[in-house]
Design brief:
Elements lengths: L3 H29 L4 H12 L4 H8 L5 H41 L17 H15 L3 E2 L5 E3 H4 L24 E3 L5 H9 L6 E10 L10 E11 L4 H16 L5 E8 L2 E10 L16 E10 L1 H6 L8 E8 H9 L12 H4 L9
Parallel strand pairs: 1-4
Antiparallel strand pairs: 2-3, 4-5, 5-9, 6-7, 7-8, 8-9
Helix pairs in contact: 1-4, 2-4, 5-10
3,4-dihydroxyphenylalanine (DAH) binds next to strand 8 and strand 9.
């Protein structure tokens, strides 16, 4: 009578008894012929995979009579160990071979010259900020980093520009809500530093940075740069302002540069002046840059208005001060001979490359 149980028993017994040496031989042959780790893994599946030769034999042990289970179990384990040990040896060898091969392929000639590393250069705007900061730091000024998001209070009211004041018209900016806005002038830093300086000690600071206005034409951008300066101390006079501006103009635009004051109006200074510099192109003789006048308008300045000092917590009977503010874009254009303000913002690599002067960075 056909009994599947006996057949499988026979198969197990026969396979193990008769082929135990054969299996070992096969394992050896298979492993010795393996060319790479991919095939090696396939050999592992062949013997130890779900349907592998050794796995199947192990599963079949259950069906042997109890007294034989142990003997065959030990034998199978020996085969399994033999496989795993041999497998490990081959795996290590192949791994080493593969690494060596890769190293050979990837080897580089370290004597070849390297490719040039392309680096950028400072934007003319950053250059001018660095130069002005260096100059004023050398005169003992603090360099302040103001906030670009300001309040109406600090950008206008504390600078003697109450709501409804006509001076606001020229400084329409971007409003976030009724109170918060993008600063239209770095002058806002004046109000902050006076308030923050709790001991009311003298102040000497400049604040370079970006400002914003609702402007849109060929010569005005919605964003541009300014630098503000503020000095507050006892006995500060217009002469101090003039001396400071003379140094500023000469260091920045050339030793022969002259300056002149013209009366002007700013709500936060009294008296206020417009400051011109002698044309650095024609030396004052008159050319198209200075529109034949010999002078170029450079900045606004004046003595700090007593109201502004008071709102900043400084007694105007004891303290006086001067302030000035100027556009950085115009300065950069003058200094680096840039004919159009838009060149500063279009990031044309041909223009920026001309400032690639590593030696003086
Ligand atoms: N904040 C002024 C502007 O944006 C420039 C200015 C003028 C600043 C006179 C000053 C100053 O500090 O005293 O037009």
């Amino acid at each position: 009578m056909f009994r599947p149980f006996e057949v499988s028993l026979f198969y197990i017994k026969g396979e193990i008894k008769m082929n135990i040496e054969k299996i070992k031989e096969n394992i050896e042959r298979d492993l010795n012929n393996v060319p790479n780790t991919d095939i090696l893994n396939q050999v592992k599946v062949k013997y130890l995979g779900k349907n592998g030769i050794i796995t199947n034999l192990q599963v079949g042990i259950k069906e042997l009579p109890n007294e034989e289970k142990k003997e065959y179990g030990i034998k199978l384990n020996t085969i399994k160990k033999f496989f795993n040990d041999s497998f490990e040896i081959v795996r290590t060898r192949l791994h080493e071979e593969e690494i060596n091969q890769k190293l050979k392929e990837d080897s580089i000639d370290i004597t070849l010259p390297s490719e040039a590393i392309i680096t950028g250069s400072l934007h003319p705007f950053s250059r001018i900020v660095a130069e002005i900061s260096d100059l004023f730091a050398s005169m003992g000024y603090d360099i302040i980093d103001g906030d670009e998001i300001e309040t109406d209070e600090y950008c206008f009211r504390r600078l003697n520009i109450p709501s409804g004041h006509p001076a606001r018209d020229a400084q329409d900016t971007f409003y976030i809500d009724e109170e918060f806005l993008l600063r239209s002038q770095t002058s806002a830093s004046q109000a902050h530093i006076m308030e923050d300086n709790k001991d009311k000690t003298p102040i000497r600071m400049i604040c370079p940075g970006k400002v914003y206005r609702r402007d849109e034409d060929a010569t005005h951008s919605h964003q541009f740069g300014q630098v503000e300066a503020l000095v507050v101390d006892r006995n500060i006079s217009l002469a101090d302002l003039k001396g400071t501006l003379e140094i500023f103009a000469q260091k920045l635009l050339g030793d022969n540069t002259k300056i002149r004051f013209r009366p002007s109006y700013f709500p936060f200074t009294e008296p206020s002046v417009e400051v011109d510099v002698s044309c650095f192109k024609c030396g004052g003789k008159g050319c198209h840059l200075c529109k034949k006048t010999g002078w170029i308008e450079l900045l606004g300045a004046g003595m700090v208005h007593p109201n502004v000092l008071k709102m900043g917590g400084y007694d105007p009977d004891i303290y006086t001060g001067f302030a000035f503010g100027t556009g950085l874009d115009r300065l950069a254009m003058f200094k680096y001979n840039i004919p159009d303000i838009r060149y500063l913002y279009t990031n044309d690599i041909r223009m920026l490359k001309q400032f690639d002067r590593k030696d003086d960075e």
